[in-house]
Amino acid sequence: MNNPIIWLHGDCLSPEGPAFKAHPEAPAIWVWDDALIDEWQLSLKRMVFIYECLLELPVVIRRGDVAAEVIAFAKESGANQVVTAESPSPRFQDICREIKRSHPVEVLPPEPFVRYDGYIDLKRFSRYWRVAEKYVF
């Protein structure tokens, strides 16, 4: 029997994301990634925006090592699988590899917000939006 949890990350914070659509009753987790916050020097403004998005979702919020927290949540929930959305983040594959040591990971493609094949700097939303808005409107 399929009994997944959903791992939410910063590249798919929507209740319409593929993991929620595929498993609407599954418990979900978000983990504040301490290493990423330090590496990218995320601003308080961006973290508040993310937190406000999270408050609108049925999600457990934790902080620390992402893979370890996702695995712990899966075990606590009695889950036999972790479901998440694709991410272009360089850390994403490493985190998935670590989770796979304990649980299978299903990575679902999100519906693209824009169709663009060029490079976009994902560290700052404003840089992303300058490119994306040309394709949205």
Please give a quick description of this structure.
The protein has helices at residues 18-22, 34-40, 44-55, 66-77, 90-100, 125-136, and strands spanning 4-8, 28-33, 60-64, 81-85, 105-108. It is α/β, with parallel strands linked by helices and 137 residues long. It starts with a strand and ends with a helix.
Structural class: alpha/beta
Poorly predicted runs: none
- Which oligomeric state applies? single chain
Distance between the termini: 43 Å
Largest sheet properties: 5 strands, parallel
Please tell me how large the radius of gyration is. 15 Å
CATH superfamily annotation: HUPs
Task: Give the second-level CATH assignment, the architecture.
Answer: 3-Layer(aba) Sandwich
**CATH-derived topology:** Rossmann fold
Helix and strand run? EHEHHEHEHEH
**Number of separate structural domains:** 1
Helix content: 40-55%
CATH C-level class: Alpha Beta
Average pLDDT value?
88
Net shape: globular
Residue share in β-strands: 15-25%
Sequence of strands across the biggest β-sheet: 3-2-1-4-5
Number of strands: 5
Number of H- or I-type helical stretches: 6
